[in-house]
């Protein structure tokens, strides 16, 4: 289930395709909100999916929910 995710820091993130064969670097501004699926915690990191692309980032760089 997708949840509202707010990015708490600005910076470049690397999105990886579902197949793992493609990457796309994008700049995300602090306060950007996206509807993403939040996957399990990986030692303080979370994996965020938009359905086709994912990123793994520190859990303290995002806020889940409103």
Q: Would you tell me which CATH topology applies?
A: SH3 type barrels
Protein structure class: mainly beta
Number of H- or I-type helical stretches: 0
- Bin the helical content: under 10%
Features:
7-stranded antiparallel β-sheet, single chain, SH3 type barrels, mainly beta, 66 residues
Question: Could you describe the 3D structure shown?
Answer:
The protein is an all-beta fold and 66 residues long. The protein has a single domain (2-64), classed as SH3 type barrels (Roll), CATH 2.30.30.40. Helices cover 0% and strands 64% of the residues. A seven-stranded antiparallel sheet has the order 3-2-6-5-4-1-7, with no helix packed on it. The chain is globular. The model has no long low-confidence stretch (mean pLDDT 92).
Question: How are the SSEs placed, and which strands pair?
Answer:
Layout lengths: L1 E6 L3 E7 L5 E6 L4 E9 L3 E5 L3 E6 L3 E3 L2
Antiparallel strand pairs: 1-4, 1-7, 2-3, 2-6, 4-5, 5-6
In short:
The protein has 66 residues and is mainly β. It is 0% helix and 64% strand. The chain has a single domain, classed as Roll (SH3 type barrels), CATH 2.30.30.
């Amino acid at each position: 289930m997708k949840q509202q995710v707010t990015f708490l820091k600005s910076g470049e993130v690397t999105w990886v395709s579902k197949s793992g064969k493609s990457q796309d670097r994008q700049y995300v501004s602090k306060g950007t909100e996206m509807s993403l699926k939040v996957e399990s915690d990986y030692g303080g990191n979370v994996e965020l999916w938009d359905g086709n692309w994912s990123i793994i980032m520190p859990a303290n760089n995002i806020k889940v929910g409103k």
